[in-house]
Amino acid sequence: MKINFLNFSDPKQNRFFLLTGSEIALKQDALTKILDALNNQGFIQKISLNQDEVDQAEEIISRNSEGSLFQENLIIYMKHTSGKFPESIKLLLEQNFLYNSTNIAIIIESSIEKTPTSGTWIRNLDKYGLIINCKKLKQDEEKLWLMRQLDFLPKNLLPLFGASIFQNNEKDLLNQKNEVNLLKLLFLNEKDHESNTADHITFHSGLSAFEIEDMIINRDYKKAVETINYLKESSDQNSAPIIWIIAKIINSCLETLQSSNKRSTLKKNGVWPLKVNSYLALIKNSKTTDFLELNQELLKVDLMNKGILKPNPWEQIEKIILKLQGATS
Question: What is the CATH code for 2-133?
């Protein structure tokens, strides 16, 4: 079956895959979904073959064929990076016995942009597997892809972050993906990222993103302002990640003030359990109206960061921190 990446969501029970096109980020996404699905089917072992090694695939399959003493569920991943599609892979895919081998899964990542319309090998893949087209996306397709990546964000923050990421990284899906991964670490619960620590989110200066969050929720506003000024002066750091950290804090506080179950709301907004009490103490004497005003200030600073408004975004960030100090006093 042939399918465009944007229409691909579930590998289902397929065991044979061909990824085509030149968009690396889409291929990475597809590969992750495929490997997860195969792992759930009991395919754990994987052998990777680069373009110079694909001739070995048939021998590996024969050694692992049904009836073999050491038979195991095996994934064979082949990467074709340049030139014509390898004849050795075509010959392998033409053999019907391959598709009857229940303990073999094959993933082929190819640099070809278009698949041929005829040939036994492509007909077999079309019949028994999935051919996923990972071509470069048009602008509207790229926005749809990004929106899906950001589905973990609160709805009111999606336009703010989505527009900023797209404007700063249009046509560069790898950079967009990196920005999304940063946001995931900032917004998702610790239990969803048990292997990650604050050390994984750092600015060019080596400062952790969570350190800035801690300064603010612990009301060390003087140090927070000093840190913002240091980042502004000491590097060419883009202000967007800092805006996102502050946005996370303001949004979490605003939704919590509007909620009857404050602890649950904080956890739902991705606040780590160890920080819940600090957030509750921060907003103990706060008013919802103050945080609604801070939300409006955030929209202004985002427009400044994009160059749509002229004032310096760094100055506006400092202004927001000082207003946050007043709202939580």
Answer: 3.40.50.300
